[in-house]
Amino acid sequence: MKTYFFLVAFFLYQLTVIAQQDAWIYFTDKPNATALISNPISILSQASIDRKTNHSIVIDERDVPVHEAYIAQIKASTGITYKAKSKWFNALHVRGTEMDINSLLTYNFVEEIIFADSSLNARMEAVQDKFQVESSLINFTYGTTQNQVEMLNLDELHLANYTGDGVVVAVIDAGFPNVNTMSAFERLRAAGNLMGGYDFVDRTDAVYTSTSSQHGTQVLSTMAGFVQDQYVGTAPDATYYLFRTEDVASENPVEESYWLEAVERADSLGVHVINTSLGYKAYDNSNYSYTSTQLNGTTTYSSKGANIAFEKGLILINSAGNSGASGIATPADAAGVLTVAAVDEDENYVSFSSQGSAFQLTQKPDVAARGLGSYVINSSNQISQSNGTSFSSPILAGAVASLVQALPDATNAEIVAYVRESASQYSNPDFFIGYGIPDFQAALTLGVKDQLYKQLDFQIFPNPAKSTIIIKYPNSITNASLSIHTILGQLVYKSQLESMKPVNIEALSKGLYLLKIHIENQKSIIFKVLKE
Predict the structure, then answer these.
(1) What is the pLDDT of residues 189-226, one digit of tens each?
(2) Beta bridge pairs of residue 514
(3) Which of 230, 333, 392, 528 could form a disulfide with 297 if both were Cys (CB 3.0 to 4.6 A apart)?
């Protein structure tokens, strides 16, 4: 009998030993890395610092210890035995059952798990992917929004995890009732990406209180709405500020002033992209109304403000308006605004979409997106369809936010240029849909190529400059030309370019200019130069 119990105990012991697995747990980051690197004596000995300095070895994140709070949470996890750590790999060696180790993936700071038994790694990928939740949200089932997303070829960016994460968007509109409670925005709130905002009409932080219009709620839904397998906005992972500037009870120029206040607030908050599905032309007092000739992009209060905002680095996106042949309103007339027309699900211009004209000094509208039968979510949390450039604009704005995430080093002028150049009729724009319907995968390709060229050995000096600039570039580039544009896109200089040959800019007015260097048949590179 004793022998029997001994054998059973030994067998159970063997099962326990066999069930234990070794694995490396890799972490996503070291939260305090920047501060510690700036004070290296806190993480390295003086001798180590001296050795690295003498040999020009950079002190980097690998020298920072593994974050103690992460270690503590892993140690406290059920069934886990902590064995060792590596600051270079930002990883821990642990021991436990396969199930207990895999459960560590629920921590958002765990990047990856690699088992010592390599056969379990394949199993792990099949059974429990660390990014299972994220993948289910990136490989979206778009449902009702499929057409308005795929029309822009934006689904390709989403598949590459470019969903607006880290990009800050301001929505300037008429009202946002129930955004703070609707389930369609639960994912946005849960991620901490709904930042509140301000009601400039009623002068209150309670931006969700006004129920005079649900327009802003619907507009926001096209970008940030999410209903599993039924509805996905164009930038579901962006961060949003909401500003109410529209008083639906009247039409008065004060709304332009509210709008500019909101834009200035957005700038101070570090916003990247602004969507405005509003426009102004006719006021209740006809003496305040604008004539068509005044809608030239430089005359109205809001258009002048929009152009300054663009100079400040913001990307402003505005609906063209729903006035058809009567023309676009302001601030959509501004050169510093990306103005969006409306098409139907088959990519055809729809008659209500406001048309541009020769009165505008730059091409208007700029581009187009779906605005007929657009899918939105109303303040009753219901998916419905609505018409208007009010929705083609934010659909496109969300796409732009996703592109900004993909090209974080690109300037606002470059992002706008990529969007325009990717559009369906870029070489032959018109007053109906402008340059056409953008292809955001193509825009990303343009941007990647542009940013790669920027990494070549280009030097522009002096900058700021008074009378001449010199552009130096590799000898391998044999055919290049230069064009200089104002910050709003007006061409002021054009010539062939030679490396190290001075370019005379003495005739240009003081201010900021965009230098476009065109390399053979490749994508042009854009630099900023300040003329003193």
Answers:
(1) 999 999 999 999 999 999 999 999 999 999 999 999 99
(2) 485, 528
(3) 333
Chain segment 55-71, per-residue pLDDT in tens: 566 888 888 999 999 99
Residue 46 located in a structural domain:
no
Terminal Cα distance for the chain, rounded? 99
Residue 23 maps to a domain? yes
User: Which among 313, 306, 300, 311 is positioned nearest to 270, based on CA atoms?
Assistant: 313
* Residue carrying structure tokens 């990494």: 455
- Poorest-confidence range of 242-246, 348-352, 469-473? 469-473
Among candidates 360, 368, 388, which has minimal Cα distance to 300? 360
Q: In what order do the strands lie in the sheet with 273-276?
A: 194-199, 239-244, 168-173, 273-276, 315-319, 337-343, 367-370
The last residue of a domain, from among 99, 130, 161: 130
Query: Which of 107, 130, 153 is at the close of a domain?
Result: 130
Query: Residue 487 has which token pair?
Result: 């910050």
CATH code, 98: 3.30.70.250
Geometric angle at alpha carbon 507, from 505 and 509, rounded to 5°: 95
Cα–Cα dist 342/388, whole Å: 7
Domain that holds residue 374: 141-361+368-392
Q: Do 119 and 149 have their domain in common? A: no
Question: What is the model's pLDDT at position 202?
Answer: 95
